[in-house]
Amino acid sequence: MFSARALLSCCLALSANLAVAAAVEDLRIEHVTVVSPERSKPLVDAAVSIHDGRIVAITTGKHPGRSRATATLDGSGLFLTPGLIDSHVHLGDVPGMTTEQEATYPEIAKAARDQMPRSFLLHGFTTLVDLISTPAAMARWKAHDLVPDTYFCGGAALMDGYPMNWTPKPARYQAAPYMLIETGTPAPEGIDPAQHTPAAVVSRMKADGAICVKTFFERGFAPARNLPVPKIATVRELVRVAHSVGLPVFIHANSSEAQSFAVEAGVDVIAHGMWNWSETSPTTQITPAIQATLDRVLAQKIGWQPTIQVLHGERDLFLTGFLTDPELQQVLPRNLLDWYGTAAGQWFRNTLTEGYTSLQGKDPKAAEAIVVEDYQIPLDRVQHATTYLAARDARFLFGTDTPSAPTYANPPGLNGWREMQRLVAAGVSPSQVFQAATLSNARALKLAHDVGTVAVGKRANLLLLRADPTAAVDAYHNIVKVILGGRVLDPASLAADRAH
């Protein structure tokens, strides 16, 4: 039986050899306990063999000899699990920075972009899905030497609706290649409406390599209200044509009205929990109307991403101590953290303040107290809705919406760890979180042939942990090794504050 000190010494002794693991073709992890979502119980004292980035054998009992070219990890006392999948991220921008600010502070922006993929890996996320992207944006993201496996959805926004509304005209029409123009709606100058029907945009997404479609039902918030939303017939047609070419359909829907619309439209996944309720009272308890919608989500087995951290990404901008959180130093470069504390770095917080009349003239601590109180109702609502679904074994999918806005309060990787904690606080069991972040996500996105389980033939995207994550999500807070396509990564080498 290894002591904790002996086990740590053993792992550290291996680090020097495994630092060059990218150049080693074969790897074997011995005497490890395999925890995989398709298994009813852990597989004890297993050996997992990896060749050319894929799992080629899983054995138990007496393990056969290995060739001299095989690198070995001693997994005694450790747990081997699938790498985590975050099925809702946005990777095109530096969190909290505008395009103009990137140009003004190129060194800071470069440090941020170089670190972002590593921060996701640091927290165990070996697969990401950007829900609104394009081939060009994906190429930029994947240009780094170390990047989680990343896929994208095409964003089918209704013309001039959310989120297109945030981009000025006419630039918004060039920035949204998959926008929808409904029949009878005049098209902008130079835009052919025939190229923006559900069939046309889905065809273009498929050709571009998208693995899913994302659409939106959002009437707006803050200064942008009364935005146009799609007709039910439009989204039903979008779903029909997407399914005909094998693409699942996600919908941005955080209100009770939007989620009822999503159910009627027959989408596959609702992106966001329900925190905006069509209720005249400030109640946060489940009402009959809310329950009826949630019951339909359950009956139709629609995937549901709570994304509770979205609200914290807005609220936490007003926490006076947020930027001093030591965990941020692991996932954000020092120069970026320092910049967030400047007047330029506070631009988004200041923008929100301009439309927040109760904050006018308040000092930072008073503003913090007001915002925390105001956000409690939507936070309670999404927590109660999540609790209701968790008790009925809903089809949860793990997604974080990192970042949910141009906010620095949804930090890459760390945001996922915090979302897990929010889910557990809402009554989602560690086992349900594990399923949501592995096999459920893989199945929903039709990636289960490649990732989501520890199985022969699968890509070797794995985590070596000190504890069983189905017992407590705390297991993800101290990852021993991250394995990406067979390449063994030391978490210390992935941190933003690593020694250079």
By CATH, the architecture of the largest domain is named Alpha-Beta Barrel
Distance between the termini: 35 Å
Low-confidence stretches: 1-24
Number of strands: 17
- What best-fitting shape do the alpha-carbon axes yield? globular
At the fold tier of CATH, the topology name of the largest domain is TIM Barrel
Tell me the major beta sheet: 8 strands, mixed
Proportion in β-strands: 15-25%
List keywords for this structure.
single chain, alpha/beta, Urease, subunit C, domain 1, TIM Barrel, 18 helices
Q: What does this 3D model show about the protein?
A:
- With 500 residues, the protein is of the alpha/beta class.
- The protein folds into 2 domains: 4-82 and 453-494, Urease, subunit C, domain 1, CATH 2.30.40.10; 85-315 and 365-444, Alpha-Beta Barrel (TIM Barrel), CATH 3.20.20.140.
- Helices cover 36% and strands 17% of the residues.
- The chain has 18 helices and 17 strands.
- The strands form 3 sheets. Strands 1, 2, 3, 4, 5, 15, 16 and 17 form an 8-stranded mixed beta sheet that branches. The protein has a 7-stranded parallel beta sheet with strand order 6-7-8-9-12-13-14.
- Helix 6 (198-208) runs parallel beside helix 7 and helix 8 (256-265) runs parallel beside helix 9.
- The model is unreliable at 1-24 (pLDDT under 50).
